[in-house]
Write a structure and sequence with these properties.
Strand order of the largest sheet of chain A: 2-1-3
Shape of chain A: elongated
Low-confidence stretches of chain B: none
Largest sheet of chain A: 3 strands, antiparallel
Number of helices of chain A: 2
Structural class of chain A: alpha+beta
Number of strands of chain B: 11
Mean pLDDT of chain B: 96
Helix content of chain B: 10-25%
Order of helices and strands of chain A: EHEHE
Order of helices and strands of chain B: EHEEHEHEEEEHEEEH
Strand content of chain A: 25-35%
Largest interface: A-B, 11 and 21 residues
Oligomer: heterodimer
Largest sheet of chain B: 9 strands, mixed
């Protein structure tokens, strides 16, 4: 089995209104050291082990569905899990 | 002219669209369920607003993999008019039939009100009955209507005259106030405002009716031989 963690964030060039609202809120709570907030998505996938390139499979899933590459970037971590 | 209203799980403006075509425009119309593949018998495709697949992940991202989308790509190849309103616009963006992407409204609020639009291009099959620069009133109802594209894409949209409608007041933070765009060939229109909810004065405005009448006019000119 594989445990895959996918992180999706808005591209640096894209304004993040959600991040801006959260930043304002943190400032209102007097956390004035917060300079920037970006809100993203975290998706966990559990994959059966099969032949083939897992890395390429995950990339395809990200490109086709999980991220909209017009406005979003993605990164992922793949971890092999041995079922007990 | 025979229209299809494509219905996804979560569509909620399908009945408004059906009503606009059948009762106000007076043309033929049928609902098509998203699992049905066939659209060949239709002359125009309408993708209504709503929350297809609950807007999970991103608006329109799951709907684009429905069975019916293959037929929508075919209809596009055949140059049939395809109109996507609100969630329909979001689906067309996710499907790559129109360029750009949709973000949450700049102020993060759901906006539901009548807005004023300017007809930026009246030389499309969707806008020919409007005057260029005409100000029209059409309602919006969306939380993710903040249209984004990069500068290169915007330059291309402007150069090819693909911007059909702009907001006279930029309500949601859309790039250059864009409210609706067409594809390069001009047979696909995506717009956030709801023309199907502005087809009778009783609804507060009848300015949307001309959009549907424009489609019919262009179709008749191409398909009906005058005697």
């Amino acid at each position: 089995m594989y445990n895959v963690k996918v992180f999706i964030t808005l591209k640096e060039s894209v304004l993040d209104p959600q991040g801006a609202a959260v930043k304002d809120s943190l400032h209102r709570l007097t956390y004035n050291t917060v300079e920037d907030v970006r809100v993203g998505k975290y998706i966990e996938l559990t994959l059966k082990k099969e032949d083939g390139d897992i890395d390429q499979q995950v990339r395809e899933m990200c490109e086709k569905l999980l991220a909209n590459t017009v406005i979003e970037d993605y990164t992922y971590e793949i971890e092999e899990v041995i079922p007990q | 002219m025979k229209f299809a209203v494509v219905v996804f799980p979560g569509s909620n403006c399908d009945i408004d669209m059906y009503h606009a075509i059948k009762d106000e425009l007076g043309e033929e119309v049928e609902y098509v369920w998203h699992d049905d593949k066939e659209l060949k018998q239709f002359d125009g495709i309408l993708i209504p607003g709503g929350f297809s697949y609950g807007d999970y992940l991103r608006s329109g991202s799951i709907a684009r993999f429905s069975n019916v989308m293959e037929s929508i790509y075919e209809a596009n190849q055949a140059d049939k008019p395809i109109l996507g309103v609100c969630n329909g616009f979001q689906i067309l963006l996710e499907a790559g039939l129109l360029p750009g992407a949709m973000q949450r409204n700049e102020k993060l609020k759901f906006i539901c009100k009548q807005v004023e639009l300017e007809v930026a291009n009246n030389e499309t099959m969707f806008t020919s009955l409007y005057e260029k620069g005409e100000k029209i009133t059409i309602p919006v109802a969306h939380g993710e209507g903040n249209y984004y594209c990069d500068e290169a894409t915007y330059a291309k949209l402007a150069e090819n005259n693909q911007i059909a409608f702009t907001y006279t007041t930029n309500i949601n933070g859309s790039r250059h106030g864009i409210a609706g765009i067409t594809n390069e060939r001009g047979n696909v229109l995506g717009m956030m405002p709801h023309p199907e909810r502005a087809v009778d004065e009783l609804l507060g405005s009848a300015d949307g009716l001309k959009l549907f009448q424009s489609i019919v006019k262009s179709w008749r000119e191409a398909h009906v031989v005058s005697s």
